[in-house]
Amino acid sequence: MTRVNVDPKIQLKLLDLAAMDTELAQLAHRRRTLPEQIELDALERERLDRKDAAVGVQISLDDLDRDIRKLEGEVDAVRRREEKDRAALDSGSAPAKQLSELQHELASLERRRGILEDELLEVMEQREASQADYEHAGARLSQAEDQIIDATRRRDDALADVDKSTETRSAQRAELAAGLPDDVSAAYEKQRSQSGIGAALLRGRRCGACRIELDRGEISRIASTPADVVVRCSECNTILVRTNESGLPSGKPAGS
After folding, report:
1. How far, in Å, CA of 240 to CA of 233, rounded?
2. In whole angstroms, what separates CA 25 from the centre of its chain?
3. Burial per residue of 139-167, b for 16 or more beta-carbon CB atoms within 10 angstroms, e otherwise
4. DSSP per residue over 106-144, as a string?
């Protein structure tokens, strides 16, 4: 491991840098898991469900309209045939046998027309009910779309807040990192890329990164290491910053 020497007061700045990185990570996590976005996603799914329901009712209406047109056409055809037969009967010019056949056919046509008109009435009633369902589905879809507009506004506001905080903290971090020696900055960034935490406070003989309490031998080694030498956790390799909170038996902590 390459030995890095740096003023203890500079080492303390690594804790500020680590705190900023933690906050930036929290902001990134918050951005990915915004409650407003979760709500918006749920509303989008609800809108799709309601749209599918409205489309389903529209398809049913189209089918019923087609059935109505078909039945109306059949009723009209039967009525025209009735009118033709009745005109032939009324003329009295047809032979007696044909007149009897016309009377029989008229009776059959009347029965057929009655059946068709009953079917037509039933389908028209079904269409009326389906139309009410369609209007209800349309109202629910409009309600969902209004909710989405409101949720989108709130999501955008929340995103703007997160982005603003991220921009501010990123600028502060860049300024702080620029004041660190290159070798310290490189060591910190390398460790952060590997474990997510570049530096942590050694508090009460416990690493602030992995939370493991170091054994006596390791604590003695750290205590005997000059304050201007960067030390690392023997468990997770994170840079350890020493202060009066470190619980070292001897030696001067960083920043003293």
Report:
1. 6
2. 20
3. ebbeebeebbeebeeebeebeeebeebbe
4. HHHHHHHHHHHHHHHHHHHHHHHHHHHHHHHHHHHHHHH
Q: Exposed/middle/buried for 84, CB within 10 Å: 0-12, 13-18, 19+? A: middle
Q: What residues pair up with 241 in beta bridges, in sequence order?
A: 201
Locate 138 and state its tokens: 């349309």
* Non-local CB neighbours of 6 within 8 Å, separated by 6+ positions: 181, 183, 184, 228, 230
Beta strands at 199-203 and 231-232: parallel, antiparallel or unpaired: unpaired
Nearest to 167 by CA among 23, 63, 13: 23
Which residue in 149, 157, 158, 161 sits closest to 40, CA to CA?
A: 149
Give me the tens of pLDDT residue by residue for the chain, a chain 256 residues long.
456 677 899 999 999 999 999 999 999 999 999 999 999 999 999 999 999 999 999 999 999 999 999 999 999 999 999 998 888 888 877 677 787 888 899 999 999 999 999 999 999 999 999 999 999 999 999 999 999 999 999 999 999 999 999 999 999 999 999 999 998 999 999 999 999 999 999 999 999 999 999 999 999 999 999 999 999 999 999 999 999 888 887 644 444 4
- The token duo for 186 is 């490189």
Q: What is the token pair recorded at 254?
A: 């960083």
Distance, in Å, from the CA atom of 104 to the CA atom of 164, rounded to the nearest integer, reads 88
Q: How far apart are CA 134 and CA 174, in angstroms?
A: 58
Statement: the pTM of the whole predicted model exceeds 0.90: no
The whole-angstrom separation of Cα 71 and Cα 78 is 10
SS3 2: coil
Residue pair 208/201 in contact (Cβ under 8 Å)? The answer is yes
